[in-house]
From TrEMBL:
Gene3D superfamilies: Jelly Rolls (2.60.120.10). It comes from the Bacteria. SUPFAM superfamilies: RmlC-like cupins. Residues 17-101 form the ChrR-like cupin domain. Pfam families: Cupin_7. The lineage of its organism: Bacteria, Pseudomonadati, Pseudomonadota, Alphaproteobacteria, Rhodobacterales. It comes from Roseinatronobacter thiooxidans. This is ChrR-like protein with cupin domain.
Length: 113
């Protein structure tokens, strides 16, 4: 039998009560599902970033708070971003943000800028 998961009352503000832990410098994570596809909330402090990486599968991002940015633009609250397999970018937030994110498969950090 396939196990399903549900998270009641995440919106409008229930996600704020989830336990977050260190992910990267300036970025915290609340892991909702760790298996592929992985699902989590990422909370960026102002000025935090994630280095350049390539997607080995689809990445889906919904901006819940603040603005997330990459080389293609700025994504305010309510923006849904779909980064397909093979896409590359780095991510940052000048003023901080929280996103709901789903990775179909792990990302590959390229070391490029």
């Amino acid at each position: 039998m396939v196990k399903t998961s549900s998270f009641v009352a995440l919106l409008p503000d229930g996600w704020r009560d989830l336990p977050f832990s260190h992910f990267r410098e300036g970025v915290e994570i609340a892991q909702l599902r760790s298996a592929d596809p992985a699902v989590a909330l990422l909370r960026y402090k102002p000025g935090a970033s994630v280095p350049h990486h390539e997607h080995t599968g689809l990445e889906t991002i919904l901006v819940l708070e603040g603005t997330q940015s990459d080389e293609r633009g700025d994504y305010p609250v309510g923006t849904l971003v779909l980064n397909p397999k093979g896409s590359k970018h780095s991510v940052w937030s000048d003023r901080g943000c929280t996103v709901l994110i789903q990775w179909e498969s792990p990302v590959y950090f390229t070391g490029d800028k």
